[in-house]
From TrEMBL:
Residues 63-159 form the Non-haem dioxygenase N-terminal domain. It comes from Panicum miliaceum. This is Non-haem dioxygenase N-terminal domain-containing protein. Keywords: Iron, Metal-binding, Oxidoreductase. Gene3D superfamilies: B-lactam Antibiotic, Isopenicillin N Synthase, Chain. The keyword Iron applies. One of its GO terms (molecular function) is metal ion binding. It comes from the Eukaryota. Residues 1-20 are annotated as: Disordered. Residues 8-20 have a biased composition (Basic and acidic residues).
Amino acid sequence: MSATGGDGNDRRREELQAFDDTKAGVKGLVDAGVTAVPAIFRHPPDALRELPSPPPADAPAAIPVVDLSGAPREEVVARVRRAAGTVGFFQVVNHGVPDELTAGVLAGVRRFHEGSPEAKRRAYTRDAARKVRFSSNFDLFQSAAAGWRDTLFCDLAPDPPRPEELPEAVRGVMPEYGAAATALALRFIAHFYSKGLECRPLDYFRLQH
């Protein structure tokens, strides 16, 4: 590696570390009045040329939808089997998690991201063992270019975090949402996904109640 390349890598590492040390994420840059995208977020021109072309705007959606309401169980199992065997993932609708609960979580997460820098700094960590962690780019120090995103991660199952571990903005709604989402996952895996794949859920998914 040339001296120039080494210096460039060292400078980038310093810029990444300086960004990470703020514990404020991308929103912190915006709040600070940044007027241009910093270099750590820019992809090298060669990498951009290698990206695949986006699909046409009028291309049909390719994500299968599995509706849990109304259809007989055998039909739902067949849809799950078909989606898992072709696309590999699918969207579940009419699943029983109340819309207002989902909306409440989204509103709480938005409050957190738009809230005080102090609350973000308290939650900021790259320790994967923490059940609740806020950070910007989980692969910040490995990727060729950082993504313009911040993430609040909450590990809600099988052992949810204690209420005091959750940021105040989501503390009132996240436990309830986690319980509802976990119940859906257990029911869906036990009654539909495992049947579609013809396997025993406890053997393949290590479910914990």
